[in-house]
Description:
By secondary structure, this protein is of the alpha+beta class. The chain has two domains: about 30 residues; about 80 residues. The protein has one helix and seven strands, in the order H-E-E-E-E-E-E-E. It has a seven-stranded mixed sheet with strand order 1-6-7-4-3-2-5, with no helix packed on it. A hairpin with a 5-residue loop joins strand 2 and strand 3. The chain is elongated. The N and C termini lie far apart (about 65 Å).
Amino acid sequence: MAKGRGILAAAYFAIFCFIGLEVYANKWEERQQSTTFVNPTILSVDEHVYGPHLNIRTFRVGVEGDSRSIDFPAENWDENIREGKLEGRMEVRPSFRYFGILDELDGLSVSRK
């Protein structure tokens, strides 16, 4: 019986740590300075759907002059924009690097002229 309680306590602790990391990451991202790309050349636009149950839809975008990918939530992306020169603006900010393995940008907004 005591072993089961120890496993349950460890599970609760892991969940607490995961939630704490998510809250910290969100607050960290909110404090990052945004950058605006003016008239960027879009090299790639790939749609991603995460998990059959999560149903989170994003657009991963690559632009000329920056090797990091930009992850736009579907509600922040204009699906009519494709590869090529964008006559407009794209606002991005650094994304939280979980364990230092992902170096990406978060897409905040995109607009055409």
